[in-house]
Amino acid sequence: MESRRTLPSLTDDLLQEIFVRIGSPADLARASIACVAFRRLIADPTFLRRYRSLHRPQLLCLLDRHFCGFQPAETPHPSAALAAAVVRAADFSADSYIPGGSDAWCTVSDIREGRVLISCNSSILEGKEYIFIPLAVCDPLARRCLLLPPIPDDLLASVQVQKQDFLDCDEFLVPSRDEEDETSFRVVVRADFTEMVVAFFFSSASGHWSVGASLPWDALSIPLAEHRLLSSHTSYVYGCFYWKVPTKNKSNKWLKLDMSSMEMSAVELPSGQLHDGCLAIVVEAGEGRLGMFSLIKGDNATSLFYTIRQIGGERSDQLEMDNVIPLPKGFRYHIFGPYEGHISIQGYQLLDEADNMCFMLEIETLKIERVCRMRFGAVYPYFGFPPSMSESRI
Fold it and tell me: In terms of CB atoms within 10 Å, which of 134, 215, 319, 348 comes out highest?
């Protein structure tokens, strides 16, 4: 009788090649509990870093802009089950790991790559006064927080601005580069003074602030009456920050900060007529193309207007795509983003605030999905991986 042939066993390398192709983090988590050998391979830090580099993080929850609450994605959203599990394991309360607790902190300034940039009350810095609001970066999944040092006075002197000339500022996290360590991060503060705009830059690698760029408003051809209304919302596209300038003639002028050259400029972005003068969001549309979203408010309904155009070159003035996307009726809408390839659409019910809704639009497919009812006035979408698949981001 011929002996029964046995199948060769799968090597660890081959198993990891199979696991890395599992698209859903929830499915990967289930595979890890199938047996001890699978758990060992999937829990390997090198494997997890590779997996995170190949797959988009999932929408886990919405964070209140005052950092006092959160809401997980709800059924039927695809991330609902994973979001519920993560929220049970994570600590979004802030009291247990942030210096001074949540009472000392005011507002979420930005959120990217699992990190939350928050601004706080100056009282936590032993009564010292600064023209810039104290900042901290925290990782809710790892329950870690890093209080950033204040921007030193000698940096102000280096760009020849005075404290009394300060008008306003906004703070943003810079998306990481592929070669950076996962715990490294950068922060940009755009500070507006009466005569100029200055971008201050913080690197966690050095632990210090530096001047990234500075330019007089006159050189940007942005009058005082207009730059004081500069949009606090930013879009990050192809390594550059963009801020919309609400000009009186309804032109599509933007302030641009190039993070590779650390140069600042005022640019006119090509757009359709419906974008001009509106609050707009610019996004990466692939192949070097720029996409732009804005809201169109009609008598009884609101729609999203989306265009794609080439940046630079001979085709820079040619419209490649023009879409009008109807939104559910009965809401007053605001749009934010982009966040991990999505636009956040927040709808405020005209009659009953209990029915305020958050939707997410996937930029690549233009598919809109309902996330959940909003218990808070304004929220930030938090994307990430389950705690078992995550490493500290700080």
Answer: 134
Q: What is the pLDDT of residues 330-382, one digit of tens each?
A: 888 999 999 999 999 999 987 776 789 999 999 999 999 999 988 877 789 99
- Alpha-helical (H) ranges within the chain are 12-19, 25-32, 36-42, 45-54, 80-89, 153-158, 217-220, 224-227
Sheet holding 196-203, edge to edge: 166-174, 186-193, 196-203, 208-216
Determine if residue 312 is left, alpha or beta; phi over 0 gives left, psi from -120 to 50 gives alpha, anything else beta: left
Residue 271 has pLDDT above 80, yes or no: no
Using alpha carbons only, give the angle 290, 293, 299 rounded to the nearest 5 degrees.
Answer: 155
pLDDT band at 1 (very low <50, low <70, confident <90, very high): very low
**Do 106 and 119 form a contact (C-beta atoms < 8 A)?**
yes
Asked if residues 199 and 190 have their Cβ atoms less than 8 Å apart, the reply is yes
Every domain range in the chain assigned CATH 2.120.10.30: 56-389
For CA atoms 169, 170, 173, 174, give the dihedral sign. negative
pTM to 2 decimals? 0.87
**CATH architecture for the domain at 56-389:** 6 Propeller (2.120)
**Residue of 285, 283, 279, 241 lying closest to 263 (CA atoms):** 241
